[in-house]
Amino acid sequence: MDKMRIGIVGCGDISGIYLKNLTELYREVEVTHVCDVMAERARGAAEEHGIRRFSTDMNELVNDPQVDIVLNLGRTFDHFGISAAALNAGKHVYSEKPLGITFEEGKALVDLAEEKGLLLGCAPDTFLGGAFQTCRKIIESGMIGDLIGASAFMVCRGHESWHPNPDFYYKPGGGPMLDMGPYYITTLVNLMGGIKSVSGMAKKSFPVRTITSEPRFGETIEVEVETHVNGLMEFENGAVGNILTTFDVYHSKAPSIEIYGSEGTLQVPDPDWFGGEIKLYRPETEDYSVIPSMFPYDGNCRGLGLADMAKAVQTGREMRVSGRRALHVLEVMCGFIKSSEERRTVDIGTGYTKPALMKSTGLAGILD
Predict the structure, then answer these.
(1) Closest-CA residue to 67 (of 5, 145, 117)
(2) pLDDT digit string (tens) for 139-166?
(3) Cα-flanking dihedrals φ and ψ of residue 220, to 5°?
(4) Over the chain, what HEC string results?
(5) Is residue 1 predicted with pLDDT exceeding 80?
(6) Which residues contact 170 (CB under 8 A, 6 or more apart)?
(7) Mean pLDDT within 359-368
(8) Which residues pair with 289 in a beta bridge?
(9) How far apart are CA 127 and CA 261, in angstroms?
(10) pLDDT tens digits for 198-224?
(11) Hey, which residues does 337 pair with through a beta bridge?
């Protein structure tokens, strides 16, 4: 079977691990074209990874007949425009998170893809990693009993102390919920099921941020989004969860994610990664036990979702990281902010169906 040909729009920081994995780990794809508005970045990526074509014009890439799937690694607020252009050019699209910066953008992309008969996928794909597939297996095997609730915490003091250009984290499309929330909400719905309604309270703790990283040490950023977001979630199965995402807090000892059941508690690793330590508490032992991973892909496997999507294009099977699932996550995240602004509970109109568990083929980089 021929390899699926990938064109990448955006050669910024996140592109490095994608390029490495797509050229070295995943054997059923081939990167044929890279594009960035900065010619030196596009050229450098092409030369480093042996890619035969690079450009500075997105339209050249999305209209390239040697590209089957466009990987959208553009800036958050450019996701919609890039994905829409690629879909209109007849390309399948896999986008970095979030799908769009508003629910309306995300829905428009999902509708466009379905109208065109194309696949639309979206990160994060960390929930496909070995640790998170193992956590789902534990839950579905009944080891913690009936699901009661969940808690999730993403706590940090912001990115201006280390990121060279942190402005976009504090502009529309940024903030802790849209930036990091996709990892946590995606993991929660894949473990707990879809979300029925949400409520939230959010605030902007610091209206101005001072950059302490180089090369812009001392510059300030006007904050335009909420940077401390608390959310409550009513899952379709009746369980209730809470999530905190914040750029305002220095430190916390709270676990990344805990799942509460009638017969035990499951501590889930940081969903920004594919692996990590899984801990299971059962009343019989009165302590936590470390559970080994039962699935592959525990390392930094960024691009796993794209590889899964490529396999779905080739075989016609369902993809695991679909645009409809990303739209559900986006509606939930936007719902927290809407609830905070309107001081009411917000019903979630999109549904969510868990994709099939990953299967090991016994061959690294070749998916089922």
Answers:
(1) 5
(2) 999 999 999 999 999 999 999 999 999 9
(3) -115, 155
(4) CCCEEEEEECCCCCHHHHHHHHHHCCCCEEEEEEECCCHHHHHHHHHHHCCCCEECCHHHHHCCCCCCEEEECCCHHHHHHHHHHHHHCCCEEEECCCCCCCHHHHHHHHHHHHHHCCCEEECCCHHHCHHHHHHHHHHHCCCCCCEEEEEEEEECCCCCCCCCCHHHHHCCCCHHHHHHHHHHHHHHHHHHCCEEEEEEEEECCCCEEECCCCCCCCCEEECCCCCEEEEEEEECCCCEEEEEEECCCCCCCCCCEEEEECCEEEEECCCCCCCCCEEEEECCCCEEEEECCCCCCCCCCCCHHHHHHHHHHHHCCCCCCEHHHHHHHHHHHHHHHHHHHHCCCEECCCCCCCCCCCCCCCCCCCCC
(5) no
(6) 209, 221, 222, 223, 224, 225, 227, 247
(7) 90
(8) 280
(9) 20
(10) 999 999 999 999 999 999 999 999 999
(11) none
Closest CA to 7 of 44, 59, 48, 79: 59
Q: How far apart are CA 174 and CA 182, in angstroms?
A: 12
If you search the block for the tokens 């009411």, which residue do you land on? 344
- Which tokens belong to 225? 């989004």
- Residues composing the chain: 368
CB under 8 Å to 111, separation ≥6 — which residues? Answer: none
